[in-house]
Amino acid sequence: MSYVEPIPTSPLRGGSSSFMLAMSLIVGLLTLVGIPRYIQSAEHAKAIVGIEFLRDIQAAQQAHFDRAGRYADSIDLLDLSHPMPPYFSIGAMRCQSPRDWSLTLTRVGSDFAFGDYQIEFDQDGLVKESRIATNVVERGKLIAATQAQ
């Protein structure tokens, strides 16, 4: 008489399909919550890159004003420490008079939820009428980021 060894059974055998379904639902819910927050955080970081560039423009404009007695009417005349931001198109420098200037960055290629928003700076900093998507950054956090050194 030969002995046949029994096939081992899983301790989860009876409830394994319901356990896997519950785990799939949990992972799905975490994904639904996590991905939009990740996309918003990534867009916020890109907006901060644009703001840092505009702060650099502002400092370079002030240095140019101190040397020449007027603001530069072209980015090419400025000594910048930050590279051009890769996620934005840079508008033309607008100098309405020797004592004021403004420059607008327009976000290109952004996620459909945010659109091509704009960030505008002038000699005083962030222009409050900038068309920044409210779901990119909270207004208070954005203004704080523009004033932080």
Produce the secondary structure layout.
Elements: H1 16-68, E1 88-90, E2 94-97, E3 100-107, E4 118-122, E5 125-126, H2 139-147
Antiparallel strand pairs: 1-3, 2-3, 3-4, 4-5
Write a structural description.
By secondary structure, the chain is α+β, with helices and mostly antiparallel strands. Helices cover 42% and strands 15% of the residues. The chain has helices spanning 16-68, 139-147, and strands at residues 88-90, 94-97, 100-107, 118-122, 125-126.
Mean pLDDT across residues: 79
In terms of DSSP E residues, the strand content is: 5-15%
Going by helix content, strand content and strand pairing, the class is alpha+beta
Helix content: 40-55%
State the separation between the terminal residues, measured CA to CA: 86 Å
Give a quick account of the main beta sheet: strands, pairing sense, barrel closure: 5 strands, antiparallel
How many strands? 5
Order of helices and strands: HEEEEEH
Radius of gyration: 27 Å
Count of helical segments? 2
- Taking pLDDT < 50 over at least 5 consecutive residues as the criterion, the unreliable ranges are 143-149
Shape verdict? rod-shaped
